[in-house]
Amino acid sequence: MSIFGGLRSGVSGLFVQSQSMAMISDNIANVNTVGYKVNRPQFSTLVTTSGSETLFSAGGVQSTVARDIDQQGLLQASTVSTDIAISGDGFFAVTDQVTLNPVTNEYEPTGDIFYTRAGEFRPDKNGNLVNAAGFTLLGFARNSADTAFNTTNVLSAMDGVNVASQSAKPQPTSLVDLSANLQNSTGTGGSFDIAVQVFDRQGTQRTMTLTFTKVDPGVAADAWDVTAELTAGQFVNTDASNNDGGTGSAIDAGGGSDTADDNYLGSDELEAFQGTETDYSGFAEDVIGTGGIANLGRVTFNTNGTLSSVTDDFGGVANSGVALTGNNSFQVLVDYDGNNTTSTDTVAIDINLGSIGGSDGLSQFSGNSVINDLTQNGKQFGSLSSVSVNEDGVVTALFDNGEQRQLFQVPIVTFNAPNALRPESGNVFSQTDDSGQPVVKTAGNGGAGSIASSSLEQSTVDLADEFTKLIVTQRAFSANTRIITTADEMLEELVRIKR
Predict the structure, then answer these.
(1) Which one of 174, 246, 294, 360 is most buried, counting C-beta atoms within 10 A?
(2) Which of the two residues, 498 and 141, has the higher pLDDT score?
(3) How confident is the model at residue 167 (pLDDT cuts 50, 70, 90)?
(4) What angle is formed at CA 494 by the lines to CA 489 and CA 498, rounded to 5 degrees?
(5) How does residue 291 score in pLDDT terms, banded at 50, 70 and 90?
(6) Vertex 106 angle, CA 102 and 108, to 5°
(7) 263-302: b or e for each residue (b if 16 or more CB lie within 10 Å)?
């Protein structure tokens, strides 16, 4: 009977409006939830087949949930460097459980893998980046050679992004690039000092002072003799016997030779002073200079003020205790602790004076003696200062000694049908048959969005729109209750006919 059909229509209307109310309530409740995607109801008719063309059989209404998961939310700036957001398509891969692998020292995912746009990540007690719901961010770790990332399409092969226990090892100074002008009108015996901060293997800062003293023009025109002085330690002869690796020389400790130049420290010998050689016995007789002072050599200039030559001749006498690398650099061996028997802290330092025939390094012009530029590659021990993430998803650790180190790369995961993902508690989604397979990409490639650092994606809820829907839903619900009460009154009239 049509009255009962109307009742059923009213009941179905009450049900779908209740569902609509639940979705609106959820949206309003999550208006400030980072990365939340709005839910909205979709209504469609229910039709029952009638037995006659002249009769109408009421069916009612049904509803489904439409999730605009692929809708972009507004990006809001954050003061936290580990807050990240996606501008464009894709999701962060996260997991609800990680376990430390003692072999690789990486946290590997051992739980379920989910996908989210909520990028409010903070380090937990183990240093893993987790979001507000406790899900750990996954990413590509660096390879064993620290030259690239271990990119993979297998989500379970990724690692938890971890920023704990990171420190920068000290780096001994092995290269000094010097750019300075020596005043051409300086009289005989006049000098100019340049203090260079250098670091030993333990990261201790020392001072090496280079002194340039003008040579008598009657002896050598436009020439300066160069000495070096250490605040602690001593200089070691690169080849005390001047026999290029013969008995009693420091080069011999390296186990190599270079027949091209008796005063050149070849690549094989240099390895001895980069940490692979531990026995430097015999250095006591190879110390050059006294009290941490060494005569390096002589630099001469062309009449136009450009650098002409760099030699190991000091005071006009050949100095075999100092090596020359190329034709424009002094190379000295520095023993910082002065322990000549086991000098594991000995370091070779190249002092680069610029291009021959150029003025990019040392020059001799009429201006004052002045340092133009001075750089060295040594660093002290560094503690983790901060962590940053760039638009490519590369997580970089910044240390208080100025060093930077790339740790992980955060990938972007895309789906053919992202709106078909299944929502889970914690503002994450899981894969379904309808969503398609997850495709792992690097940020900005293959249709994947880019990563915005120090940003958070806001909820896609429009509060004014939700309040409007709330009023409409309330009115629709009330109207459906009128259907039921009216149908009830009609049935009551039918019952009274029999009486």
Answers:
(1) 294
(2) 141
(3) low
(4) 140
(5) low
(6) 100
(7) bbbbeebbebbeeebeebebbeebbbbeebebbbbbbbbe
